[in-house]
Design brief:
This protein has no helices and twelve strands. By secondary structure, it is mainly beta. The chain folds into two domains: about 60 residues, no CATH class; about 55 residues, no CATH class. It has a five-stranded antiparallel β-sheet, with no helix packed on it. A five-stranded mixed beta barrel has the order 8-10-9-11-12. Strand 3 and strand 4 form a beta hairpin.
């Protein structure tokens, strides 16, 4: 038996973690399979993408809401330590707007691979 289906696109839907609010345009990570903020997950969460619409799961249980993200290349502010020599290496979320080459001794979640450095930011490939 072959593949069940085919998907050509960058949008994904993931269940949200309980007690989490995510704004449109911010990146998110998967912590134990649930979408949450980039600073949640203690360095073990997986990069998911950037939210297409804001979602609020403050009062729901984990999985009550499915939020949509867009995977792919996104530009973030440079914490100051990413250089052209960093291209191809992993960048880590400092916050929802900034990435660094440092994992801060494993406490930061990986954003994805650095694909390009510009004068005004860092391009990072987000998503699974």
């Amino acid at each position: 038996m072959g593949a069940i289906a085919e998907r050509d696109g960058r949008k994904r839907g993931y269940p949200m973690k309980a007690g989490v609010v995510l704004a449109a345009g911010v990146p998110a990570v998967l912590d134990d399979g649930y979408l949450t903020t980039v600073t949640d997950g203690a360095g073990s969460a997986l990069s998911a993408g950037v939210l297409t619409l804001g979602e609020d799961n403050r009062v729901g249980a984990s999985g009550d809401i499915v939020a949509e993200v867009v995977a792919g290349e996104h530009k973030f502010a440079n914490a100051g330590d990413i250089t052209v020599a960093t291209v191809g290496n992993v960048a880590y979320f400092v916050d929802e707007s900034t990435v660094s080459s440092s994992s801060d001794t494993g406490s930061r979640n990986a954003a994805g691979k650095v694909t390009q450095i510009d004068n005004d930011g860092v391009w990072v490939m987000l998503g699974l």
